């Protein structure tokens, strides 16, 4: 009799764990357990072997087992009938192929930024980053622009209203100052990042844009080192068929200072609207690090020299892909962005 009790418990466990995904599974359950040759009827047939004094006890157990199996069958019927009804009432054609997922692409600004970083990393430049909310010292004063200096008017600045000593950085030169303050020389870094200026948004200007600035400080660094570095950058970015020229300029944090032009990519140097019929397009500013800046950061200007340069990533991107409206970069129009999927 103990063997019969064990078999009933085992069958209960088996029945409880049965799962039906469709009507055929429910019917298979009925045949296996409740059919004329099913396991429930087989177990009920063991009643003839039960001693007379225990027939009442086992009769109740076997009847409960049969009701348990029938209740499970009813549950399976409810589930599979509902599933079948939903499938029949659905207007969706489940035999249709799935919708293809659109292939994404990198933003053109990211593509050019990564390329610029890669070019300078091959020359030994490391990437340095800093905060976008900056204090006056790192954004202006340490860069040889003390309070009331006229050079501050060159950049329309977003000030934090609660504390005007804090601003949205106008350039990534602030990152260079932070690296120089660490006093770990020599320094060879590039500083990519987003910057902010209070300018009217147009096809050629925006209130935020992206820069990559570079800095190299060591002993006996010369302007010739700067020129050769930038010659290499232009050839790697645009190719070897472009002319390059340097024009004297002014920046408060470099002396001497220059702006670098390349022959226009649109007209090949013959003159067009993009280059204002000069045949040249300015791509970056550069120069030798001003001794005052070195001293402000605790670096001996008698022993160390350096060069710095900075460029707008949007300007490089517009030239590289011949894009004429700066606003396209931030409008998130997929028709514009998907054009660069082949360049990822």
Description:
- The protein is an alpha+beta fold.
- It has two domains: 2-89; 108-343, Bira Bifunctional Protein, Domain 2 (BirA Bifunctional Protein, domain 2, 2-Layer Sandwich), CATH 3.30.930.10.
- It has helices spanning 2-16, 23-34, 39-44, 55-89, 108-121, 136-139, 173-181, 223-238, 291-296, 313-321, 334-337; strands at residues 126-127, 133-135, 166-168, 187-196, 208-218, 244-251, 254-263, 280-289, 305-312.
- Helix 1 (2-16) runs parallel beside helix 4 (55-89) and helix 5 (108-121) crosses helix 10 (313-321).
- The radius of gyration is 39 Å and the shape is elongated.
- The two termini are 75 Å apart.
- The model has no long low-confidence stretch (mean pLDDT 87).
CATH-assigned fold name of the largest domain: BirA Bifunctional Protein, domain 2
The major sheet is characterized as:
7 strands, mixed
- Low-pLDDT residue intervals, each spanning 5 or more residues: none
DSSP helical segment count: 11
Radius of gyration (Å): 39 Å
User: Structural class of the helices, strands and pairings?
Assistant: alpha+beta
- Tell me roughly what share of residues is in helical segments: 25-40%
- If you average the pLDDT, what whole number results? 87
| Strand order, largest beta sheet | 1-4-5-9-8-7-6
Strand content: 15-25%
E-strand count: 9
Quick one: CATH superfamily of the largest domain? Answer: Bira Bifunctional Protein, Domain 2
The protein's oligomeric status is single chain
Q: Name the CATH architecture of the largest domain.
A: 2-Layer Sandwich
Total count of domains: 2
Distance between the termini: 75 Å
Q: Rough shape? A: elongated
Q: Class of the largest domain in CATH?
A: Alpha Beta
